[in-house]
Amino acid sequence: MLAKLLSSSAPYHLLSYASVTGITLWHSFIGGPVAFKTLPRQQFGLLQSKLFPIYFSLQTVLNGICLLTTSNRNGRIIFIIGLVCGLLNLAIVGPWTTKIMNERHKVEKEEGKQYNEPGISDRLKALNKRFGMAHGCSSIINVAIVLSLLAYPFVSSEIKF
Fold first, then answer.
1. What DSSP string runs through 68-106?
2. pLDDT value at residue 156
3. Taking every annotated instance into account, which residue ranges of this chain make up the domain TMEM205-like (predicted)?
4. H/E/C letters for each residue in 107-151?
5. pLDDT below 70 — which residues of the chain?
6. What separation, in Å, do the N-terminal and C-terminal C-alpha atoms of the chain show?
7. Are 82 and 59 a contacting pair, CB within 8 Å?
């Protein structure tokens, strides 16, 4: 009985799906917003820069496990979306956003102004624009993961009601 249970992909699939969904929903709608409202902006940015590599790694790996443990065609599509999007945020968009954020913090310190104060330099304005673009890309990628994970129970024949 135990050998059969351990050799089945079902528990690994369910645990991975539940974990990636819980982590993604928690960070997107609870942990991130509460930290944003609670911490000073630069501390929030530092916290996110430390959490995001872990968060994006978990999204990538857990979607990968779900992909390997599903036999459902729709499920495979969903988990490919999650895996690719997680990997994009982990390897490209997340580091790009963090680099711009760190540059912006440095320029703010040099100029003695916050990014949103009147009379900021053209350099800081350009960094603001780049940061908005990078952060927007990361957010859109994260929304794609959220939507795909929430769609899974509705399109999967592996989940029985």
1. HT---HHHHHHHHHHHHHHHHIIIIIHHHHHHHHHHHHH
2. 85
3. 15-106
4. HHHHHCCCCCCCCCCHHHHHHHHHHHHHHHHHHHHHHHHHHHHHH
5. 1-6, 157-161
6. 25
7. yes
Instruction: Determine the distance from the C-alpha atom of residue 83 to the mean position of all C-alpha atoms in its chain, rounded to a whole number.
Output: 11
Residues in the chain: 161
Amino acid at 23: I
Instruction: State whether the Cα torsion 65-68-70-75 is positive or negative.
Output: positive
Residues 93, 137 contacting (CB under 8 angstroms): yes
Q: What pTM was estimated for this model as a whole?
A: 0.90
Amino acid at 126: A
